[in-house]
Each structure stands twice: as C-alpha cells, then as structure tokens.
Design a protein that fits this description.
The chain is an all-alpha fold and 174 residues long. It has nine helices and no strands.
C-alpha cells in the first residue's frame, strides 16, 4: 500500500481539515454583555459591525433599540432600583436576556398600559435578580440609554449599520 504525501494529489487532505475546524453546531451562545464587551474591545468600526452581525439576534436588537431609539422611553424611574445581584457563576442558575427580551415591552411607555407602576417595578427587579449580574447591568444601562457610555464604540451609527436600520430604527430591507 502506497501512502501519498503530496497534498496536490489529496485535495481532501488539508482543505477538508480546514473546513472542519468550525463546529457545525453552536456550542454556547454568549451573553449579550459579552457581545458588547467584544464590540468595546474591537479597534475599528467594521470590526464592531461584524461582531454585532455575527451575533445578530432579536434579543440583541431589542436591547440596542431600547438604548438608542429616542422614541422608546422607559416607564421606570431613572437609576438603579434596589435589587440583589445574582452571584451564580455564568452558565448556571440564572436567566438570559436571550430568553427574557420578550418581556421588555412591559418596561417601556405604551408597552403595557394596564400594568400598575408598582407591579412594573416589581417585575423589573425580579428580572434583574434572575439575570447574570453583567446582563442585569446591560439592561439597566439600556433602560437609561447609557449603553454607549459603558461600551465605547457601541454607537448609534454602528448599531444602525450592523442591523441595517434606517433613522427610524426600522429594517431597510423589509
């Protein structure tokens, strides 16, 4: 039996190996706070846009919209409510914004008008206490429209380009 070592004769060799390096199944979805940290650390605007595009999800878009869209105003008082941070290690015993984002409408003006102020604040605190402490901070900053101050480089222009939004924060291609 002859073993051929020339990669020209074995096109499935190194090329096939290179293609298999990326897993077919995503093993772990990063927290939204981790995505924003990657954007913060990126050096150029195209890198920042690419990071947001690579992690595009309705939850990520909702948090960005909450922070950047001037038409969306919080129905909660400004500042941080008293809550107990969830000290559980990442990946255990806490909820994620990727699953909780569907409830964010409750905390915006016009989102759930039937909800009493006290109940709205109670639900917000419960959400914060269930989230990982970094994601709770993201939500607090988004509520007060301060994400761009915490994560340098996460700007209005970057978010609009990454999600293909116009000036009304609506998708251009829809």
């Amino acid at each position: 039996m002859t073993v051929v070592m020339d990669t020209q004769l074995q096109p499935a060799g190194q090329e096939a190996w290179e293609k298999q390096k990326t897993p077919a199944v995503k093993v772990r979805t990063p927290l939204i706070s981790e995505v924003f940290t990657l954007v913060h650390k990126a050096k150029t605007k195209p890198q920042k846009v690419k990071i947001l595009k690579d992690h595009d999800h309705e939850a990520l878009r909702s948090v960005c919209k909450m922070s950047f869209d001037p038409k969306i105003t919080s129905a909660l008082p400004e500042g941080n409510p008293p809550f107990i941070e969830n000290e559980a290690p990442e990946g255990t015993e806490h909820t994620k914004l990727f699953t909780e984002y569907k409830k964010l409408y409750r905390f915006c003006e016009g989102g759930d008008n039937k909800l009493q102020t006290m109940k709205r604040e109670q639900l917000f605190v419960q959400m914060l206490e269930g989230l990982h402490k970094d994601e709770a901070q993201v939500l607090l900053n988004a509520k007060d429209k301060k994400l761009h101050q915490v994560y340098k480089g996460l700007s209005d222009a970057v978010v609009k380009e990454a999600f293909n939004w116009d000036d009304n924060y609506q998708r251009k291609d829809v």
